């Protein structure tokens, strides 16, 4: 039986690609979904579909319609959500996705480096699993599938 | 009929106190709840109740149990949630509370300065109301109560 | 025990005022809520709170944030929803409120003149009660309270 | 992974047929469902199954039982709902389906020409995505599936 | 703290009146609601509000709109439902109300004479409490309130 | 796409067998489930699994555990429920299943002969579709699948 | 604003009485509910209401109908649940009540002595707050009410 | 159509292995899931993934994150839950899983020896089926699948 996993979190490096590769190598029956990983495409999608917007605020608003559509559809189908926080960005989307998972009754695996323990303490306390690396998150899914 | 409002957001200035004061001056029938506003008490509450913890990580974890208890009880009772973001902090708690409100079907009033439009665009797109100041949030509640 | 009633529907005549008056005369313990009935205020509220918008589309969008906030808060509290359709307008808000009530599990009293039977047939078929005048809706509430 | 899409909206032209064709050409894994598109069959279905009704009101009521059955079953299975409004009709069914989707937590893509911005502003404000043409709605689904 | 109790079941004798009287004598803080107990009024209410209907089938249908409105509003508010079955009638409304309570997560007290054990066995097996007399149901509520 | 249909109702004739046969002849993609149709097995199942019970009351109670298990599992999976009432029996199980479907948000097709219009009027008023024969119910499903 | 608290857990000592007393001394606006604390009454209640049962198994079953009725009604009304485990008993009711609270979305305060850490680790991990004494649970509620 | 069954309960003997073997022999279309059955692995999993913990309390807490992740994911997918209690252990996890199933609306088959009737009476009273051996639970599932 396959599990559907939503990979929330930063889109500034290739952690999802690595995650997919490792899941494949371990032969885990996971269907991995996530946000648009091409950052420019993610910011431009509003104007690409709806056309030129009057200013940057409306450009952002238009893009977020489509990014939220994508997130809502895949998160609704997910059996479990992984949310990865990194040191560099504010990543409010990640926090939004993580809280949405918790409030929807979907188990959340929170991945965050040690340096973020304090600012993420309330979110961590409500997550199902808290680890420091994506590899540990993969270990957790492998354990579920044993 | 009174409305219960949860005031999520940063606890580093006195915006809630001002909000309460203005609501009172306008005679609005609002019951205003929120997180612990004494920052030290918020960080210490775990050790104050459970005793000395082995290290800062567990100290944070202990505190978050009680802060989350408080948030969950009052948010569950709220008719509407106001989430205020400021320029300075990462405020992942605020994002968590905002997303919890959305996913619970509670209307969310997002308050954020113009400078945060881009990083908060996805959250803003799912909020019921987006404004820039707490005074505008109060105007919105006054309109509901007309 | 009081019942909370949300009065959805057109805001172009004074049917709510008459409804309130008659409920009072019959001594029914009803708390009556509804949308903003001052039509200009309803259309202007976005700019009154958020300031001048760049064009009529954004002006409408801003107004609807606050009108929806009001509707969501009071409909969530309602025990029963009355939706009145008249001959003249498209009244998609009324249809939206009526369907929201049905899908929320709240009983709906649909009020519509005989001339609207055909276009409203699917909505009528899912309503709890279908009548032709507000007075009949009031009779229905009186029956519940006997 | 396939997505199930419910195509709510007017049944007076062949927009669904075109939509299906284009989805196929782009190779999108979509299962497209919708109301009965044969308008006469939609109006007659009550009498075709239950037999002759005493008058047009009961004829309409009988038809709506079966049309609502169809809509409820497919909307319940849908991952996302597209609601198309055109200039000509009152289309209260479309508004009902759109609001049902929102209240069910299903993301809604609202398609409406520029001329309908004002009367649809409240519904638009609660939709996940608002566009002007079915092609843009298809672009949005393609983006989700990238 | 008061409990709201919905008294489902036959409307052919005065068991509710006796129940109310005994609850009062024992000083139990119960708010007791139920269907219309005047049987003629219950059957006539459709025509009394909507006017003369074309035949008995439509007369029944009209009455049931208002009886269902009443039941839905009060059952939604109830903390607990009592459903009384007697030997004489088919009482499908009682079975409907009992199953609605179970499926809504409201505890159900089923009252039925020994002679109805076999036909009611599946309903009894899902009730929270099964007794043979209204007095026993009152004892159960008194126990809850101790 | 297949639809799962739960066939609630009397188990005293072979209407389900005929229904299955006709669905097959029409090539409808339906998965048809229902209660145990062997009446003796249905009454004996408690003692067959749990062993001899002390008296008929406990024998009935034991049987109903397993009959309810079966009903709950298949109804939960059903997309639509058909409930058939006949003239002869009290059929409280059928009323229980019908109300459970309504309260779960599953569309209900009620099948009942004309002679049962009055006692079933409240249940009929909340069903999605009301017809008089199983063939009409099959027509309704065929219409959904067109 | 008062909070309703359900005090789940063992009924073999007077911890609830002490809890009530201390809450009163501290002036906390708490409404405290819980199971029947008279152990004999709790075991006898089935026969006291329904009469002599054939054997101890049915006696237990009868009692549990009424104890569960009580628990379900008050837990449903509670804002927060406290579950106290002691060293001596198996207390499966306490575990049932605690898990019911978690699954209902009600925050749970788990109170257990250090010696029970290992067998309660999975329950503790899902609780909102974990402490060792009722006094600490009261501190937690006082913090919420600050 | 396959049914997914979650096998909650003690992990100290091989009852699940026997259950799987017998289900296979009878050709029942069951997908059987459950907790980690290797007891040492279950206790060690926290440190195996997260690394050495400071003391046994944190070791237990770490393990329970992963065990709860596994339980939540599979229970959410289950159509029915079997919970087996044996004489020897406190098995609070089993009670937690059983109550979670009840509160989630999933039917529960409780398996417990006669000696545990009294301490499990409240849980038994809310289960859908209560039997004494795993073989009887398998009989129940076979009956559902007839």
Automatic annotation (TrEMBL), chains A, B, C, D, E, F, G, H:
Question: What InterPro entries would the database entry show?
Answer: YtoQ_family_protein
Output compositional bias ranges, type Basic and acidic residues: 36-50
- From which domain of life does this come? Bacteria
Q: What is this protein called?
A: YtoQ family protein
Q: Which Pfam families match?
A: Nuc_deoxyri_tr3
For the region Disordered, give the residue spans: 33-55
């Amino acid at each position: 039986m396959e599990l559907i996993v939503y990979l929330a979190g930063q889109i500034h490096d290739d952690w999802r690609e690595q995650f997919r590769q490792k899941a494949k190598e371990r032969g885990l029956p996971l269907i991995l979904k996530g946000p648009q990983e091409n950052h420019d495409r993610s910011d431009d999608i509003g104007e690409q579909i709806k056309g030129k917007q009057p200013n940057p605020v409306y450009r952002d608003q238009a893009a977020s319609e489509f990014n939220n559509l994508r997130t809502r559809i895949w998160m609704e189908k997910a059996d479990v959500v992984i949310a990865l926080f990194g040191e560099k960005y504010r990543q409010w989307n990640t926090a939004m996705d993580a809280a949405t998972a918790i409030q929807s009754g979907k188990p959340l695996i929170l991945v965050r480096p040690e340096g973020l323990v304090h600012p993420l303490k309330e979110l961590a306390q409500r997550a199902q699993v808290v680890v420091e690396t994506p590899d540990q998150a993969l270990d957790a899914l492998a354990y579920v599938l044993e």
